[in-house]
């Protein structure tokens, strides 16, 4: 697996996506990014799915895009190569994770670097080992950030801490990432799988349409005013009230029992 691979497995109502390049800390080659983009695009249109799980193989989550392999060619890329290509590769991955109307959960051990770090930050929930390392090494490598770092970090942890990570290249442990509000939860490395599965089970049992519309409204609200946010909420409410899960939620409330949502 010189270029590595991305394993995509349907597990009932869950989609399991595993980055498979452990000898390179799961750094993403071009074919791996293409596979990841395709898997997320297909998941967005799959009515049978209720959650997506992204993880890394071996000791690490993802060491980012494989810039070393990208720059080993003897041929100099033409001017504008990055501007032409990256919006359809690395940036598209982040956009899909952020916008897909399914909850996305990442489980992180070891290193989450660059694109790998931003992938974990774009997810709806990231469960990390308390000794995991989140790192944005762009400036340390002599170039400016990409893959949404300058948008994600200030919104999650504020501008001051974003500067620490992006301008000073500070590494953040999983424990500190939870304390900062960078991720959902940090646990002991041995407990990452169990904590992730508990979360996935909870999400997959939820009202999938309402969850997706809520995620969409949260994203929309980051861009506009309060009236704009409430207008979007009203539109989404109209849609979610037409679902089978809405009827089940009302019936469960009236009958004083736990709802049995089907994701419809």
UniProtKB/TrEMBL annotation:
InterPro entries: ClpP/crotonase-like_dom_sf, Enoyl-CoA_hydra/iso, Enoyl-CoA_hydra_C. CDD domains: crotonase-like. It holds the Pfam family ECH_1. Gene3D superfamilies: 2-enoyl-CoA Hydratase, Chain A, domain 1 (3.90.226.10), Lyase 2-enoyl-coa Hydratase, Chain A, domain 2 (1.10.12.10). It comes from the Bacteria. Transmembrane segments: none annotated. Belongs to the enoyl-CoA hydratase/isomerase family. This is Enoyl-CoA hydratase-related protein. It comes from Mycolicibacillus parakoreensis. The lineage of its organism: Bacteria, Bacillati, Actinomycetota, Actinomycetes, Mycobacteriales.
């Amino acid at each position: 697996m010189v270029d590595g691979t991305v394993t995509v497995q349907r597990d009932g109502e869950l989609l399991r996506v595993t980055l498979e390049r452990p000898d390179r800390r799961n750094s993403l080659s071009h074919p791996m990014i293409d596979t990841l983009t395709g898997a997320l695009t297909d998941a967005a249109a799959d009515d049978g799915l209720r959650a997506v799980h992204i993880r890394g193989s071996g000791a690490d989550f993802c060491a980012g895009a494989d810039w070393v392999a990208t720059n080993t060619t003897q041929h100099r890329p033409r001017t504008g190569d990055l501007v032409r290509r990256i919006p359809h590769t690395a940036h598209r991955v982040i956009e899909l994770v952020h916008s897909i109307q399914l909850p996305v959960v990442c489980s992180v051990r070891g290193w989450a670097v660059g694109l790998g770090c931003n992938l974990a930050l774009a997810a709806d929930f990231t469960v990390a080992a308390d000794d995991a390392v989140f790192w944005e090494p762009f400036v340390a490598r002599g170039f400016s950030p990409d893959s949404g770092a300058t948008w994600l970090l200030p919104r999650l942890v504020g501008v001051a801490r974003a500067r620490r990570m992006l301008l000073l290249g500070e590494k953040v442990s999983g424990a500190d990432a939870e304390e900062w509000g960078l991720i959902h939860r940090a646990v002991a490395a041995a407990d990452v799988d169990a904590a992730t599965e508990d979360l996935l089970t909870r999400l997959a049992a939820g009202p999938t349409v309402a969850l997706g519309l809520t995620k969409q409204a949260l994203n929309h609200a980051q861009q506009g005013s309060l009236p704009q946010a409430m207008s979007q909420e009203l539109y989404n409410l109209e849609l979610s009230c037409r679902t089978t899960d809405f009827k089940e939620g009302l019936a469960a409330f009236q009958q004083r029992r736990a709802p049995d949502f089907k994701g419809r």
